Amino acid sequence: MIMKRIYQDYHMHSSISPDGNSSMEDMCRSAIDKGFKEIAITDHYEFYIDGVASYRFNEAYLDEYFIAINKCKDKFSDRIIIKKAIELGQQHLQHEKANRILESYKFDFVLASVHKIRNLDLSQINYNHSIIDIYSKRYLEEVYELADNEDFDCLAHLDLIKRYASKNNIKVNLAKYKDELSQIFKRLIDKNKGIEINTSGLRQGLNEPMPSLEILKLYRAAGGEIITLGSDSHNIQDIGRDFEKAYDIIKAAGFDSIYTFDNRESKRIQL
Ligand SMILES: [Zn+2]
Ligand SMILES: [Zn+2]
Question: CA 93 → CA 14, 90, 108, 126, 187, distances in Å?
């Protein structure tokens, strides 16, 4: 039996990202070799409350990204569709600056993430049972603030905090915060935005994607339709990882299509 799968990977990082390990050209070649039809290269751009950026998130960084991706498009466009994309972290912390970037640089797809509670990275929190509820709620408040007022296309890895909590052996299920999630979903759906299904959780010991099937079902029940699928690969090996499993999870959550983006316009693909 041929496994059903999806040939659009909408979340990956090249070595232009601070944490990427493979060049953009190698990422493209690997995606072609694996039979992908379309990829979005979503290098990071993080925002902080004033002045603590430890990496060169600036115009030179974005220019480097655009030079590299234009080169890849020239080289590989007969074999794969390559989308100009970005993963903006905490754009609600620098609303004006984020909007200026989105006006100056023409992306096909903008993925929005919360990696931090204010400037505190989720990976830096010392998780334990007495504080997990407080941090989970604070995390969802950040997500709401982002969803409420910012310019993006899809919200990335909606229950990301569970990844870091699990490293301290704390299990987090954000599905229990039904009111908070429904407010986030309402804002997304009202503004024609979507969420991504991020398969990195499947290969990082969580045994489920981000968000979980339970949260995907809540989004679907709330009327959510727009979803993208991404591996969040930071190297050539992880491109498209676990996309067969993801197909089944997407179907189980009640979706019959996924979405791609061109020039910030969504396009539906029937599964
Ligand atoms: Zn991320
Ligand atoms: Zn990412």
Answer: 25, 6, 23, 23, 18
